[in-house]
């Protein structure tokens, strides 16, 4: 049985491992020639942002009617914020 302490230690260990994997993959994607024998799939170059945003715009779901009480269903407000952001090029 997990106690709060062992559970937190488990989460921290997993986060550390995930961080190491992401770091290694990022390094390999940035400089594939520095990792001989490691070839990344073609989709890696197409994943993620393809351009740098011109500025920062925050689409707060509370602006679109979502409550922050933890009880009210906010699906429609979240979708509206996503749709607005997407329409604006985000």
Summarize the structure.
This protein is an all-alpha fold. It is built from 2 helices and no strands.
What is the distance, rounded to the nearest whole angstrom, between the alpha carbons of the first and last residues?
Answer: 44 Å
Determine the structural class based on helices, strands and strand pairing.
mainly alpha
Described by strand count, sense and barrel closure, the largest sheet is: none
Indicate the mean pLDDT.
77
Number of domains: 2
Using only CA atoms, what is the Rg?
Answer: 20 Å
Unreliable spans: none
State the shape.
flat
How many helical stretches? 2
What's the helical proportion of residues? 40-55%
Share of β-strand residues: under 5%
SSE sequence, one letter per element: HH
In total, the number of strands is 0
Describe the model.
The longest helix has 27 residues. 1% of the residues are buried. The protein folds into two domains: 48 residues; 42 residues, no CATH class. The protein is flat. The model has no long low-confidence stretch (mean pLDDT 77). The chain is built from two helices and no strands. The chain has 90 residues and is mainly α.
